Amino acid sequence: MKFDRSVKIAPSILSADFANFGAEIQAVEAQGADWIHVDVMDGHFVPNITFGPATCAAIRPHIKTVMDVHLMIAPVDPYIQAFADAGADVITAHVEAGPHIHRTLQAIRATGAKAGLALNPGTPAEVAAPLLDMVDLICVMTVNPGFGGQKFIHSCVQKVTELREMIGDREVHIEIDGGVDPSTAPLVIAAGADVLVAGSAVFKGGSVQNPVPYGENIRAIRASV
Length: 225
Ligand SMILES: O=C(CO)[C@H](O)[C@H](O)COP(=O)(O)O
Ligand SMILES: [Fe+2]
Hints:
Pathway: Carbohydrate degradation. One of its GO terms (molecular function) is metal ion binding. A divalent metal cation binds at residues 37, 39, 70, 177. By secondary structure, the chain is of the alpha/beta class. The chain has a single domain (8-224), classed as Aldolase class I (TIM Barrel), CATH 3.20.20. Helices cover 30% and strands 18% of the residues. Strand 7 (173-177), helix 6 and strand 8 (195-198) form a beta-alpha-beta unit. It binds ribulose-5-phosphate and fe (ii) ion. Ribulose-5-phosphate binds next to strand 2, strand 3, strand 8 and helix 7.
């Protein structure tokens, strides 16, 4: 996976048809998705449950681009190798999910996957400062994690500005996750983000049988920035 700073749109399959992940992924990629964002929730770190490494392994052959796995689970460390074996290109863990984020990031990189660090809306940018040389991506949550379709929290935009400044010329992506649509995307891109996760804003109005709205929705976000 080569680093580049261009704007990337990563549809979250949290808003896809759970009985049809393979076809949904192929549809959004055909309609212009740059990465595929995969939300793993455990009903403990967040109040919702999605799926685990077996589902990730099953959908992997359908992804031609980048498999971006967002782990909303605690603990994280016992499961890192399983998600790497499932074919994740990026594995993102939350700083709030345990006491040893430094060890977690080391363990992710040791698998060969890119290491992501996610920050909840209530977590300040400064927590990332000692970790900047250990991360390939910082995921700024712009909703409280657990559900799709929530409202973007505007106070998080300032955090993106602070992180962009802290990152300097390091090759670290800033990803925005939650409530991204054509009205909020320009705010975070202007602040320095380059990866836009979007679930409801990409999948709305379309289906595997009628994927054209997926393309329209992706193009609307791209055109807005
Ligand atoms: O991590 C997530 C929720 O915890 C999802 O990636 C995020 O909410 C995307 O959904 P939407 O674009 O509908 O807000
Ligand atoms: Fe996510």
